[in-house]
Amino acid sequence: MYKKFGEIKYILILFVIFILIIFSIHNTISITEIINKSWLTHHRDDIVFVYNSLLYADGLEQHYLDHPSLFTFLIFPIFYKLFYLFGYLDFFGLDGFLKSQNFNEGLNKLYFISQLIIYIFSFLTICVIFKISKKFSSRNLDSFIITVFFLISTGFVAASNRIESGLIAFFFYHFKFLFIFKICRKH
Fold it and tell me: How far apart are CA 55 and CA 98, in angstroms?
């Protein structure tokens, strides 16, 4: 029981560090500034993922087929639909977006939801890295230090601040190792 508590304690500390990194990236201490961030302040390529996810939600052919972003195009519409059902969005597909009253507000909300999904997968990736490093270390502290180095790395910080497919693919790639380790342990 104590061993699990120690693991949860380190994951909570990693979560706090991750939240502090998010606030420092956005140069704010206000969650409302992050939620209400304009879509114009995002990277120019981020619109591709939002647009193609809206196309996928309506069952239309995607326009960005030369990139392995299928998971992104599958996951984003699920969250768009959830936020639509909860009343945050007035639409969940491209057709509804084009008919919306306020284009900028709708796009800001889509970007926020997309960024929130990336943050969720970023934190899940942190947890997976912690679990994998725990397989190679006998102490939680060692796994924590390894995960903190990963967390503050330039690549992870940059990927967790962009709306793109790389981080989601990275998560699934490393998540499979947990299952491989579990299968190997049984045999």
Answer: 11
Q: How far apart are CA 81 and CA 90, in angstroms?
A: 10
- Residue 28 inside a domain? The answer is no
Of 170, 180, 174, 140, the C-alpha closest to 11 is 140
% of the chain beyond a pLDDT of 90: 25
- Structural domain includes residue 94: yes
Phi/psi class of residue 87: alpha, beta or left (left: φ > 0; alpha: ψ in -120 to 50)? left
36 three-state secondary structure = coil
Per-residue model confidence (pLDDT) at position 21: 84
Round to whole Å and give the CA distance between 134 and 182: 13
Q: How far apart are CA 116 and CA 66, in angstroms?
A: 25
Residues in Cβ contact with 45 at an 8 Å cutoff, skipping those fewer than 6 apart: 164
Residue found by looking up tokens 């699990």 in the block: 4
Number of domains forming the structure of the chain: 1
Structure tokens at 112: 């926020």
CB 171 within 8 A of CB 162: no
- Residue 36 pLDDT more than 70? no
On whether residue 167 sits in a domain, the answer given is yes
Which tens digit of pLDDT belongs to each residue from 78-119? 999 999 999 988 888 888 888 888 888 888 888 889 989 999
Q: Which residue has the higher pLDDT, 37 or 83?
A: 83
